[in-house]
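Reply to dn_fold:

You asked what the input looked like. This is it:
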Amino acid sequence: MRNTFQRLYAVLLLVSLSLFSVCPVFATKQMPRLADQAGLLSHSEQRQLLATLDEISERQKADIVVVTVNSLEGKTPVEYADDFYDQNGYGAGDGKDGILFLISMKERDWYISTTGYGITAVTDAGLEYMSEQFLDELKEGEYAEAFSIFAGLCDDFLTQARQNSPYDAGNLPRKPFHHIRTLLITSGAGFLISLAAAEIMRSRLKSVRSQPAADSYVEKNSMKLSRESDLFLYRHTERRKKPENQDRPGHSGGSVTHSSSSGTTHGGGGGKF
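and this is what came back:
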């Protein structure tokens, strides 16, 4: 009897091992956090951006993903971004926390899909603020710079949200330094060009010299004043209180969410570039 049980146990063990050896593995493997399918970045830019995305994602415990495609293949930007996130194993923790940035070259669409804690960190008002920071770079074809700005903003927004004060309507960051620097550079260049042009024109006026008084420029006996007086008419000053929360009109705060084809809850938004 004992030998019979031993033989039966051996047979069952062999059957179990056989079944496990042929059963497919259903665990979803996560793709890299950079999927440059449109080939917009050089190899060095890809390596640098991927390293940045990985470092931020692991430190913040939320996947920060950049995806470029040639075409949306008939889908809307919302559908493509949400499905790409859901079907490729992205998302940290039980909430599948993360933020995905998609651009499609054929349609010239961009879209940011937020999931889990990403919805809390990047509100609708915050997303609009984000887009204002990278849209110029997208339009000019400076894709590596645009994606770098996006990654840095995700890092800042997640950090702010974990301090229980997410960036939102009425609580948005100041204009980034790189925009102020660009404004200063362009203003300075314009000033120097204007100064050079004025100097050239001044050098051509050989017969004209500055005069000590305004009447030196008036032809003699060409104008006679019979009467003159100074009359102050009136002054009107109007003050109005600036309405609150006007930095992003139309946003009352928070994020509008929707469900993807797989039933996952997402936030986000997008536009054209």
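Confidence is low (pLDDT under 50) at residues 15-27, 242-249.
Hope that clears it up.
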